[in-house]
Design a protein that fits this description.
The complex is a heterotrimer of chains A (about 250), B (about 260) and C (about 475). Chain A is built from 13 helices and no strands. By secondary structure, chain A is an all-alpha fold. Chain B folds into two domains: about 180 residues, MetI-like fold (Orthogonal Bundle), CATH 1.10.3720.10; about 30 residues. Chain B contains eleven helices and no strands. Classes of the chains: A mainly alpha (about 250), B mainly alpha (about 260), C alpha+beta (about 475). Chains A and B meet through helix 1, helix 3, helix 4, helix 5 and helix 6 of A and helix 1, helix 3, helix 4, helix 5 and helix 6 of B.
């Protein structure tokens, strides 16, 4: 047997458990309850002001969260990757570790901390909690790219007369964009799609898009739920177009 | 000065990042049922956790057991499937390799909720009643890609003639696999297993959608329901603290392994 | 001192990385407009020297002068030098034009001047019409040209080149060598070039600085370095050579391979041990018994393209390499002679190993990172500092590191006609020199033993 055939079981597995389910999302999204083809689920979303406003809020929160994560995370990643400023591998592990802890647990811990400090749960705490949840996902891919970046680029820039801040803006930042874009991918999409987290952080005051998908599926409105999931898939498709460095996502998780 | 500012910034972020975790850990050492209310040092919550002596204890204990068992089965199966798949993918032609790698990336890029909802629809469509088996299958689905990605680099580093060399020296294909290939791939398989295990432990959304209505709880779904009911079961505090510690240890182990591997390459 | 034509002076420059001394008291000057090559094996300190000139490393000791002024406090971006990096370091996010214009834009040069200068320099490196190309779409040779253009467009006083041709294939390397040489002539600026390729150095340079283990071995023109190497390292590193043990009998008379020869060297003294270098193309065949200095039997003969390379066994039992345009059949007896001009006599760097040690007890001495057994030493007490001499041929090498008192590896080896002369680098960083008839390869791991009776111990001169 040829060794390339060893991939067959997995390809079959992927077809059944990855491709087919996604096809089903598409199928269910364009069906009514009795299995007939319809656009009703899609049009329902675009005429449902509640759903639309949830969608808008989700995108808004996701954009804000992503921007704050870049602003806070880029300097941190840069410092961590700079051998003169940080020599400790432990600090890096400490920054990665939250990525591996259940977001739900961390969110509950945050919400409880807010409660104890007497901070009213709302938009502010939602953003704070989101940044807290997703900052490591921004820092790590940027750190990875910066850390692997060939030092000779910044030396070449200095050699050509660039002062340290010019090296940073004209070479380091542009060359680290793949890390930033995979960071965006890892922060933006999960923010839009989370459920549970926003409820806990706002005491059910603010719903995000993920929550309405979950509510519809749980109340057996599968077709509408599938249509909402499809809309989310379209957004994912669009945002991956902006980030062609899919490999960095892989590297960023390990 | 620059160094001082940089380090101050890093430590400030770490303090912020860890404040809630430390907060939970600190209050795991007091008996108070309300979080944030310090009623003196006590290890009673830890004791409760291990003796199972508490309110609703059976469901929490069984949730922990489910979580571990599901993670173990899913990680083991993913490692097997993923390793075999990686060997196959490594030997595919460039175009097919690209196609399979693309498929392999989908579960990693998809938000959990999409994976969860789509698998839910699959099980509904196939009329499979949801429960333990569907949760395990779902976990294998999102864990295996990580194993594939851990094993592939090992295959790339491997001398392509090493398998042929073993066969040339008289090993049967099976022996060549056992005595030459597997030992070369083992570090990648171990990393993949640990990754898959932690991914499975962490999961909430996928389990939530694929567990059905038989009352199957993992730790995350238990916490979710618990928190919705208002107020966390106090014994969750020591449990969460222990989980933080275990994850930290696992991460250190993986990183040390990887550092060592880089050295030997 | 008329230092006016010096553009760069390195004075007593030393550099350590941790415990390792990478540069040890380097003294060097470079004249304006010169093409200087720093040549040596990897780890010899040549790149470190270059990086100190460009400003990416600061010397631990000593100073670097530009036009007579110390530049240690000046950061790289203010130094009037530009570098062509080993792997070019072209910015992948910029196209060819923006890569080349990078430095000029930083200096706020007007846009039309930038474009004129970029065009001009692209013409110089024969890359006209490539302005808009993505640098990653260029071949290695093209990237190389862009890297040179990017450095030259800033009109540096010195162009620094760090193994710029190492990544190119042989044919391209030869072409680029010629182009670089022409560019140097055309521009008239100083080039400092780092390479480990001796042929490249000989082709390109006005002056070659041969380095090894953090020290300058020899500075000279290519012909000086080739014809008059000052030590075995240089002789072995540059070109092919026969390096042989010899004895200077008196001025202009030297003995080696158990024959006596006339030479042109003077001032060594009488009856002094020396090393002798004879290039393989400088041993001539003759049919005239009057010219014949010694006889030999041809042992092997290999065609090398332009010439034949032959190994011969002399009538006195030495092996020599000879290069000649005409082959001689294997097994034939030949008559040979060497011109006095072609015999290069060198001072021996050392005639035996000398180690610093400490007595452990009367039968043991600690040195070079191990404790060696010795004959009972009268008059020496434990803790006494001693000087230990060991003849090269008395060092015993073991195949397994654990079989030796100290462990090391073969760091450098020379064939001296009838035996090998090895430099062993121990794990603790000591050097041991060994003469042996056994065959070893560079990098072999060995254990080192010395028989008790071969240690010549005397009280150290210092108190």
């Amino acid at each position: 047997m040829k060794r390339s055939h060893w991939s067959i079981p997995y390809v079959v597995f992927l077809t059944i458990f990855v491709v087919l389910p996604l096809v089903l999302v598409l199928v269910y999204a364009f069906q009514d309850g009795s299995g007939h083809f319809t656009f009703a689920n899609i049009t329902k979303f675009f005429t449902d002001s509640d759903a639309l406003s949830t969608f808008a809020v989700s995108i808004e929160v996701a954009i804000e969260n992503t921007l704050i994560c870049i602003l806070l995370g880029y300097p941190a990643a840069w410092i961590l990757a700079n051998k003169d400023l940080n020599r400790s591998a432990v600090t890096i592990i400490l920054f990665i570790m939250p990525m591996w802890i259940n977001a739900l647990m961390r969110t509950l811990a945050t919400a409880e901390l807010f409660n104890m400090l007497g901070i009213t749960l709302g938009k502010g705490t939602l953003l704070f909690g989101m940044v807290y949840d997703y900052l490591p996902f921004m820092i790590y891919p940027i750190y990875n790219v910066l850390n692997k970046m060939d030092k000779s680029y910044s030396e070449a820039a200095q050699d050509l007369g660039a002062k340290p801040w010019e090296v940073f803006w004209k070479v380091t930042v542009p060359l680290s964009m793949p890390g930033v874009s995979s960071g965006i991918l890892m922060v933006f999409m999960p923010t839009v799609s989370t459920f549970a987290i926003s409820e806990f952080l706002t005491n059910n005051k603010i719903k995000l898009f993920g929550t309405i998908i979950q509510e519809n599926i749980n109340s057996s409105m599968w077709n509408y739920g599938a249509a909402l999931a499809l809309i989310m898939l379209v957004i994912i498709g669009i945002s991956t177009l902006f980030t062609d460095e899919r490999k960095e996502v892989e590297g960023g998780l390990i | 000065m620059k160094k001082f500012l940089a380090q101050a910034y890093i430590y400030l972020l770490l303090v912020l990042l860890y404040a809630p975790l430390v907060f939970i850990a600190v209050f795991s050492f007091t008996e108070s049922r309300v979080l944030g209310n310090w009623t003196g040092f006590s290890t009673k919550l830890y004791a409760n956790l291990f003796t199972g002596d508490m309110q609703g204890s059976s469901s929490l204990i069984s949730a922990v057991e489910n979580t571990l068992l599901i993670a173990l089965i899913a990680a083991a199966f993913s490692t097997l499937l993923g390793t075999v798949a990686a060997v196959g993918i490594h030997n595919l032609s460039a175009r097919k390799k690209q196609a399979v790698t693309f498929l392999n990336n989908i579960p990693m890029i998809n938000p959990d909720i999409i994976t969860g909802v789509s698998l839910f629809l699959l099980f509904v469509f196939l009329h499979i009643s949801q429960g333990y088996a569907t949760v395990v299958l779902a976990h294998i689905t999102f864990c295996t890609p990580y194993v594939v990605l851990s094993v592939l680099p090992k295959l790339r580093q491997m001398n392509p003639n090493i398998y042929e060399a073993a066969v040339d020296l008289g090993a049967t294909p099976g022996q060549a696999m056992r005595k030459v290939l597997i030992p070369q791939l083992r570090p990648g398989m171990v990393s993949g297993f640990i990754l898959a295990f932690t991914m499975s432990l962490d999961d909430f959304a996928v389990t939530f959608f694929t567990r059905g209505t038989i009352g199957l709880d993992t730790l995350s779904t238990y916490i979710y329901t618990d928190a919705r009911k208002g107020g966390l079961t106090p014994e969750l505090r020591p449990l969460m603290t222990l989980i933080f510690l275990i994850i930290l240890v696992l991460l250190v182990v993986i990183n040390v392994r990887q550092a060592k591997m880089k050295k030997t390459v | 001192m008329a230092s006016s034509d010096h553009i760069i002076d390195l004075k007593h420059v030393s550099k350590r990385f941790g415990d390792k001394v990478v540069l040890d008291d380097i003294n060097l000057y470079i004249r304006k407009g010169e093409f200087v090559t720093l040549l040596g094996p990897s780890g010899c300190g040549k790149t470190t020297t270059l990086r100190m000139i460009s400003g990416f490393l600061a010397p631990d000791e000593g100073e670097i002068l530009l036009d007579g002024k110390d530049i240690s406090g000046i950061p790289p971006y203010k130094r009037p030098f530009n570098t062509v990096f080993q792997r070019y370091a072209l910015f992948p996010h910029l196209d060819v034009y923006d890569n080349i214009a990078f430095g000029l834009k930083l200096q706020k040069v007007p846009e039309d001047e930038i474009s004129a200068r970029v065009r001009k320099v692209l013409k110089l490196v024969s890359m006209t019409d490539y302005e808009d190309r993505d640098v990653e779409s260029l071949s290695g040779g093209q990237q190389q040209r862009v890297a040179i253009a990017r450095a030259l467009v800033n009109r540096p006083q010195i162009l620094l080149l760090d193994e710029p041709l190492a990544a190119l294939d042989l044919k391209m390397r030869k072409d680029m060598q010629i182009e670089l040489k022409e560019m140097h002539r055309e521009l008239g600026i100083t080039f400092i070039y780092v390479t480990h390729d001796q042929e490249e150095a000989l082709t390109l340079s006005d002056t070659i600085v041969v380095m090894n283990e953090g020290k300058i071995q020899q500075i000279g023109t290519p012909t000086d370095i080739y014809n008059e190497p000052v030590n075995c390292f240089v002789a072995d590193f540059i070109g092919e050579s026969n390096i042989l043990k010899g004895r200077m009998l008196r001025d202009r008379r030297v003995a080696f391979i158990k024959h006596e020869f006339d030479c042109v060297d003077e001032g060594f003294g009488e009856d002094v041990p020396v090393d002798v270098v004879v290039r393989p193309e400088d041993i001539y065949f003759t049919t005239d018994p009057a010219k014949c200095q010694f006889k030999a039997t041809v042992n092997s003969c290999i065609f090398k393209g332009v010439h034949y390379e032959m190994w011969v066994d002399t009538d006195t039992g030495y092996e020599l390499m000879i290069q000649n345009y005409d082959p001689y059949p294997v097994g034939s007896e030949v008559m040979l002679y060497i011109d006095p001009d072609d015999i290069q006599v060198m001072h021996k760097e050392r005639i035996r190993n000398v180690f610093e040690g400490t007595m452990v007890d009367e039968n043991h001495v600690e040195m070079i990172g191990g404790v060696f057994e010795c004959l009972p030493q009268a008059g020496l007490a434990a803790g006494d500092h001693v000087r230990v001499e060991v003849r090269f041929e008395k060092v015993d090498l073991q195949d397994h590191q654990e079989d030796g008192v100290v462990a090391g590896e073969v760091h450098f080896l020379l064939y001296k006609g009838d035996h090998y002369h090895l430099t062993i680098l121990t794990e603790d960083g000591f050097h041991i020199w060994v003469d042996t008839n056994d065959i070893w390869d560079k990098g072999d791991l060995v254990g080192v033993n010395i028989a008790p009776e071969d240690l010549k111990i005397s009280r150290s001169d210092e108190a």
